[in-house]
Each structure stands twice: as C-alpha cells, then as structure tokens.
Amino acid sequence: MRVTGTGHASMRIDTAAGSILCDPWVNPAYFASWFPFPDNSLLDWETLGQVDYLYVSHLHRDHFDAKHLRDFISKDATVLLPEFPTSEMEDEFRALGFTKFLRAPNEQVVELPGGLKIMIQALTSPTDGPIGDSSLWVEYDGVRLLNQNDARPTDLSVFAELGHVHAHLLQFSGAIWYPMVYELPQAAKTAFGKQKRDRQFDRTWRYIDDLKADHVFPIAGPPCFLDDALWQFNDIHGDEGNIFPDQSVFLSEYAKVGGTNGIVLLPGSVAEVTTEGASTTHPVPVEEFFANKVAHLEEMRERKRPVIEAEKASWRHPEVDVLGEMKRRIEPLLDESIYLAKGVGGPVRFDLVGYDGESVESIVVDFPGKEVRPYADEKVRYRFRTERSLIEHLLFIDEVDWVNSLFLSCRFSAARIGQYNEFVYAFFKCLSEERLQYAEGWYDEHERSTDAEDITLGDWVVQRRCPHLKADLTRFGIVDGDQLTCQLHGWRFDLPSGRCLTSVGHKVRAHRVDAETPAPAGEAVI
C-alpha cells in the first residue's frame, strides 16, 4: 500500500485494486485565514486527482475544498460517503459534478472490486464537525490503514477488531479558536492554551496506545495563518500556550512518551507500507524543512498575499440589511428550538464594527425571547465582536454554518459570563431547517436516555459514560481528588455535586465508594 502525502489531512492511497484520494484541501479556508502547511498548492494535482475513489471525512472547509474538488478531481471517481444524518455532503458533491456514490453502511466492511476493503465510521453528534465527522479504514492484501484524521471516536475497538493496523494517521494539533480570541489577560490565554495543548497530546497518545499500529502518521494540522492580522497564531514565537504545534513538535513530544514509530508526510512524501514495515521518501529532508519553518512561512505569506486581498475585497455587501436579514433567518429557527434555545439560556450579542473601523452596531440574538433585536444595554451570556462585512457576507451567501466559517476564521474576539456553553456554537452551526431539526432530535434522544451502568474510579463510583458525548470513562476518565476529567475532550466534573465545571449542563452521577447510599442520579441540565 502506497501512501502519498498531499498536505494537511489529505493523502492518496494507492493499491493494485484502486486508489483513494482523501480530504484534498488546497485553497484558503474560513475567510482566508487558514492555509495548508506545508504548502501543497504546487503539487501535480492534475495527476493526483485521477483516482478511482474519493473520500472526504466531513464538511469542514479544510477537508471539503469545493473549488479544488471541482477543478482538479476526476468526476469519474466514486465518492465514498459516510452515513451522515443529513444529505448535505452528497448534495454538495452533486453540485460539483460528481455522480458516482458508494453509501457506506456505518461500521460495516465493504469489499470493492479487486479485493480492496473499506469501512467508514461516522460520528453524528451535533458537536462532531459540521453535523458529522468520520474515519476511514482500508485493507488490501493484508495491509491495514486507519485514516482517523480529525475524528474523535470514544474508542477504536471497532477498527482493532478487524486485525492489526499497520498505518495510523490522526490529528495531533489544534483546530479551534480557543483560547486565542477570548478577551483575557495574556497570562490567562497562555495558561489556558498550554492546558489545551497538553490535552491534545494526551488524547493523541491515548488513541495511539489503543490501536498500537506499526506506524503513526501525524496529520490534519496545523494550518498556517498568513494574514498579517493572524500571523501571531503560528507556532513560531516561543509561546508555550500556542495550540498549533507542527509535525516536528509532535515527533519531539512523542519521543518523550517513548514513541519511536512516527512518520511525517510532507506534501509529496511517499510511504510504502507493508506488513513488515514502511519505507518513506521525502521531497526534502523533514528536519531541514522544519528548521527553516519561519522562512517557508514568510515566503508563502508574500506569495499568497494577493489571494488574501482578493478574498477580503469580496466580503463587503453594504446592500445587506444585517439586522433585518438576521431576523428573517434566525427568528424562525428560534421559534422551533427547544433544547438549543434552553441550553443557551440567555441573549448572545454581536458587536459589528463598521467599514470605518470604529462605529459599532450591536445586535442581540435573544434565545429566551426568541427574537433578534438591537442591543438594549442588558447583560448577555456571550459577546462576539467582528467586522460587519463578515456577517454581511455570511448573510449574502446564505451560509447555514457560522462555526464552519466565521468562528473557525479566528477573525473575531469573544467574551462570556460563566462557563463554556456548547449550545451557543451548536445553534450557530445549525442555521437551516434540516440541521436544526436534526440537532433538536439528537439532544432530545440523548437527554431523555439514562445511563444505568456505574464504574469505580479511585474513591468514587461514577456513571460509565461521560455526560458530554458518551465517552467510556473506564478509558478516558481520570479522578484527581474530588474532580473527574474526561480526557477525550478535557471536560471536568465536580464529583460531590456532579456539576460540570467545563460547560453548562451535563451533570454526572457519582458517589463515594464508602457512601451508604448513592447520590440521586443527576438529570442532564440544559
């Protein structure tokens, strides 16, 4: 099995029974804030795009690059579709000219012509990607590969049960806006960032240990930030709180925990994987490339500057009545929302900075009141500050996912009262009837379900499944004193009260081992 690195989470898998191109991303994403690094735009995409199969793990724009898919990927390729709850991915592929689809039943092995086998695991929580994320398992002639990319399954047993895996490709770096955009003292940002960076690596080590593959390939990050306004987010400034460590840092940190089987894929690197080992060739020496990272970024910044400026020129739409359009788009969804609206539990404010860089219009999405209106000098649960032109553009293109556009761009600042609230971001990911109804149904099903099985962790008896996204706490749960941490997503709980310390809601059921009677099971708070 030959694996060719094509940048970020993208790779081409070649076997004698066919080729699979995964997650090809080349063009800037999220309001031209994210670029692939190392740069993959100079690869021979005309040749790379001539494949038998195409797999895109989810609809995040650093995985689903519509322009690149339209221009460079063969429309004769069969698209391997995860079993997602909505038809959005297939609809987007069809709009780009793709006509051949294989709808892979979730977690079922499918044998393709020539003996090539694949299995796709689809994750379908509203917090998984933009309504779904997935992983791809591939087997040919006894060689097995797992492309986990960004996905965070609760465990990898479904893959391990299919036989020993020889190549494990997974995310290790950050892919979020926290904590950089929050209006906090720099010392606090650094502390929170370091905590997140450490959790990212801890989660990666756990996945690697679960699968015990022969070779581990760090992929799916980090992006690079070439706009001058975002340059500080690149991990080149000696900031221990930067959440975007690169592949060379991965190798260094992996070595500290005994990892010796890591393989970096630069764009153009080729790994020949067999049951006996792996041999890899690179277009340039890996250590030398990352030793010159700053120079590579600076050269890339100058080369991509016209691209960024052209993107910025397209965002302004002064003809858009922002308040009126937000009312038209959002108020009907607020009326239909039960779980998300209650979960947010208060007003959310958008401060829109005008073209002059000084004037500000403040608009409130009032979740309890089920309306969008001008700000009325009240306390708000969340506040976002961004350029008016970005919201104009989202409304102009009828964007249904403000998370997979505005928030991932990091072109905003944020402040909040109290804990992180996942419902805020879940709602702004679901600005369509189809998405909202799915998310409401998912929360309804999961909030009504009970988890009767308990486990013992240290001095505590707790429910086996994390109240957040049902991770198995026998594997991901760590108790330190009276606190429980689920390492899958880093959520923390106060065990005596059951209260979630990370976000609103998600109460855990727990009692001390020596308690005569367990505390009452905590109902999830929304």
From TrEMBL:
GO cellular component entries: cytoplasm
PROSITE patterns hit by this protein: RIESKE
Stretches assigned to the Rieske domain: 461-515
Molecular functions per Gene Ontology: 2 iron, 2 sulfur cluster binding; metal ion binding; monooxygenase activity; oxidoreductase activity, acting on paired donors, with incorporation or reduction of molecular oxygen
Gene3D superfamilies in alphabetical order: Ribonuclease Z/Hydroxyacylglutathione hydrolase-like, Rieske [2Fe-2S] iron-sulphur domain
InterPro entries reported in the protein's UniProt record: RibonucZ/Hydroxyglut_hydro, Rieske_2Fe-2S, Rieske_2Fe-2S_sf, SCP2_Rv3818
Domain of life: Bacteria
Keywords of the record: 2Fe-2S, Iron, Iron-sulfur, Metal-binding
Alphabetical list of Pfam families matching this protein: Rieske, SCP2_Rv3818
Protein name according to UniProt: UDP-MurNAc hydroxylase
Organism listed in the record: Micromonospora jinlongensis
